Amino acid sequence: MTAFSNSRYTAADLTVLEGLEAVRRRPSMYIGSVDAKGLHHLLWEIVDNAVDEYLNGYADSITVTLHSRGDAVTVADNGRGIPVDIHPKYKKSGVELLLTTLHSGAKFGDNESYIHSGGLHGVGSSVVNALSRVLVATIRRDGFDWQQSFSRGMPTSRLQKLAPARGHGTTIYFEPDEKIFKTTHFDPEVIRHRLEDMAFIHHGLTITLKIEATDEVIDLSHPGGIPEFLDKLIADGQKPKVADSPFLLSRNGEGKIEVALQWTESTDEVIRSYVNGIRTSDGGTHEKGFKDAIVKAVRNFMETHGVKDKKLEITANDIREGIVAVLSVFVREPMFQGQTKERLNNPEMVSIVESFVRPAFEAWLNANMSVADQIIGRIVLAARARLASREAAQEVKRKSPGSRRLSLPGKLADCQSSNPEETELFVVEGDSAGGSAKQGRNNKTQAVLPLRGKILNAEGLTLQKALTNQELADFVAAVGTGAGEKFDIGGLRYGKIILLMDADSDGYHISTLLLDFIFRQMPDLIRRGHVYLGHPPLYRIQVGKETYWARDDAHKEEILSGLRANAKPEITRFKGLGEMDAKVLAETTLDPRKRTLLQVQIDSNLEADRMFVSLLGKDPAERYRFIMDSAALAVAEELDV
Predict the structure, then answer these.
(1) Which domains does the chain have, with CATH numbers?
(2) Taking the complete model, does pTM exceed 0.85, yes or no?
């Protein structure tokens, strides 16, 4: 038994965070992160509240204004307006109560103020207020304009009754707090795309975006709704349709569901799902019900019509390969996973969506036999391609280890296993990082390829020209699939290809160059989920015998703020992976149980193409525009000078 004679733990050591202080101390708990994604999440919270007014029949117009400085936004709707009367219990106006108190609002309990809502946690507006240096709420209702100002969650004025006014609505102006966020500048393109998605889902809602810096006023309304959205997604994917006729299905009422579905020649599966108008990027129970419905309906159709091949097993992935779909459901009491609402967890939605979609889709297939034949033919081809890839992979495995490695780069430290389901390739920058990685890896399943010298910028080059660069040629040889027209996923030697570069400008540049080459010449590696970015720690924080690892500056500050007041932390900043000894690198970056990997995904081929052309293309004007547009996002302490 170990005794700690000097450690007293009493009630005096406990801290109670009051009001919105908890939000400012731990913002990531409420908005996911304090980077650009978290910054924009503030805007989505306010916009979602405005959309809730539309969903419940009280508004039909939303205007979002990005002000000229780029770090301030106004959201205005013509809904009922936040209540301005005094709450009988809390003796505060409805405006102040909503904006200064967590878990407040009209979306709890059994009242009928909100039937459908995306914001049922009651924390959105108050969180935005807590994380804003300035927030001004202007309410139009009861024959007057009303206004109250706040700063960092605290009122800076009383609720004031302004001039008489007709109409009703809520206008929220806010400036995110530079003490919280890495950047406080909003991206107009991110805002435009998100609002346009909302306009497709809510086709009766007028959404306007005003960008003061360019004097643009953009009407994002889409009365064509989800069918029009489906056409846009297919056009963005730049892959031909298998058949011209889409499957469309909808029902109105309290359990409203809308579906649009079409097969393409792409090898991707694209499903955009929404709950009460909020994008669920991580899917959830509604998306599972939809996927189950499609698979079951196709299998029933194939069995009914005798489409069988004893040698060919049709999997669920074969059936869904190439589909582009939009799914929108409305749920009275949605249970989202986390405040950022990226996944739906209502268990009943699996059967609700499946039982609605499956019989309708099966009936549609039977009523459109020519379209069904084209779809089934596409599915069979997908299954045959998968089978051929598996046989090719097995053939590679059957080869002896010696013959398998004859053409591999000499600097590759290969692993012992030849099973792609468990092997990993770490692509590292330079010999010093390569040496640490080789010593710290598990040599049974982890291989290391150090890159020496500068990677060629292959944007706009032919494959033949790109492969004159030894580093790119070595990378292709190590992966084993070939590139360009000779790419064959059956030759893949590693299930995970992890780009592990230094957390500085050179490392980011090399990662971008490699991702561009993969996107242009080996895109299936990304589509099939084989490409990852390693996320090594930037700081080590030592407090006595305790060690903490911080991913970035914001994470470092979060860790430091959670330490005891009398703690004396020792902070080490790693300038590169080569500075880490093998044990540290293994513990923080190589060990699958402790590391952080970011999977590379492509939401839009069109947007990815535009980004790589802007960053790496031959036209310097494009790059200049990108740099000037993004200059405001640079944070001085993060510049590598």
Answers:
(1) 21-219 (3.30.565.10), 225-389 (3.30.230.10), 401-536+598-638 (3.40.50.670)
(2) no
